[in-house]
Amino acid sequence: MVSRTIPVDPFDLVLFGATGDLARRKILPSLYRRFLAGQMPDTARVIGAARSELSNEEFRDLVREALAEFVSKAKTDKAAIDAFVAQCSYIAIDAKGDGGWSDLKQMVREDAIKAFYFSVAPSIFGALADKLRSHGIACDNSRLVVEKPFGTDLKTAKKLNADLAASFREDQIYRIDHFLGKETVQNLMAVRFANVLFEPLWNERYIDHVQITVAETVGVGGRGSYYDKSGAMRDMVQNHLMQLLCLTAMEPPAAFDPDRLRDEKLKVIRALDPVPLKDVVRGQYKSGPEPSYIEDAENADSKTESYIALKIGISNWRWKHTPFYLRTGKRLTKRMSEIVVQFKETPHSIFDRDDGSTANALTIRLQPDEGIDLSVTIKEPGPGGMRLTNVPLDMSFADALGADDAEMPDAYERLIMDVIRGNQTLFMRGDEVEAAWAWTDPIINAWEAQGDKPKQYPQGSSGPEEALALLLRDGRRWRDLED
């Protein structure tokens, strides 16, 4: 399988927060890899902007250091790095004052696509957007990229949207969620809507339940004070897991068009049932090989969850009787993100009950090994009667692409190039963000009113025992994280 690289038009990308961690780990390396692949033209420019007083050469040294640390050896090419770094420049910017804005206006070109990437705290989104517009730097064809969190509740999300809308139109705003840039997430749409095999079965008549898991082995050390004001519900469920749920559950859009696709996702969010506290399990990792959550958060009285599991219902014709189980947590036994679509048993089995047959399951793996597999029941080879076994029809993207292309593009690579192309398909719309918070807020408010602390769970486990009971009471089990 050979992937095609289609170059984008010349652009100026102004990266606010260019000296920050996200810029170093993800944004700058992703731009370099697109340059190496031939997608980023030689006339494109990356303009770093931050508070620090740096010369162009000092910023280019920072870019080189980021590429050395976060780009694989296989993608390291000295000539390409030199050429890419030569396209980078820097300007010191005062987000709330006037310092640097006139110089920035002189730097960006009128005849190139202008993209402004806010890799900064959301608290200054509005100020930066206003400066870009009031200084005449942004134009009607400019694109604005903003990172999460998109608010901390419905009220703050509405204010953030209003602040951005004061300077940019909705069709200019790209709210980035890196989960949507993953190859497997996009293949979920292809599997559903480009194959006659699955869509007729994609409903409550044939699907028993859906599990969405994002498990992490790391804790919150280093960002504990920030995370303690957020928690797994705000940090992961309201955005990342919500997007995976929407893509799994949405109706087929009339066309593969940004607004039509996002219209269907919005319908899913608005159809989500309220979640009672009995269908929510919150946890905190205990002390183990590494410090406990409360030690990482430096808050002995913390009631913030590092783990959450929920049972969610969707009140529409397609999914009325099919529960969706979501879970995410820190310091778990394995780093894994996947969607498991568990089909129902056959209506009648002609084989013995203990023959080893199980229901089919479609597993979409987002990380660490991106791919899709479908479990099917077959006869076990050899004599001795009709013995059945379950085997996967497996497609690993690394294997399918071949050894030379085994390194999958980072999600940020696709998303940044989509910004330059003006394609909003994989980005969240303002009303979608607000609808997600409108569903999330009552759940958070309910447990805050109750005042219970999260359940403790061992590091390196699958989470609190109570999360197992969430499915066991329905006669189901979580997929083992070790599978």
UniProtKB/TrEMBL annotation:
Enzyme class: oxidoreductase
Entry's Gene Ontology BP terms: glucose metabolic process; pentose-phosphate shunt, oxidative branch
Catalytic residue list: 240 (proton acceptor)
Pathway: Carbohydrate degradation; pentose phosphate pathway; D-ribulose 5-phosphate from D-glucose 6-phosphate (oxidative stage): step 1/3
Binding of substrate, residues: 178, 182, 216, 235, 330
Keyword Oxidoreductase: yes
Catalytic reactions on record: D-glucose 6-phosphate + NADP(+) = 6-phospho-D-glucono-1,5-lactone + NADPH + H(+)
Membrane spanning stretches: none
Residues annotated as domain Glucose-6-phosphate dehydrogenase C-terminal: 189-479
Annotated residues for binding of NADP(+): 17-24, 51, 148
Described purpose of this protein according to its UniProt entry: Catalyzes the oxidation of glucose 6-phosphate to 6-phosphogluconolactone.
Full protein name: Glucose-6-phosphate 1-dehydrogenase
Organism: Jannaschia donghaensis
Gene name linked to the record: zwf
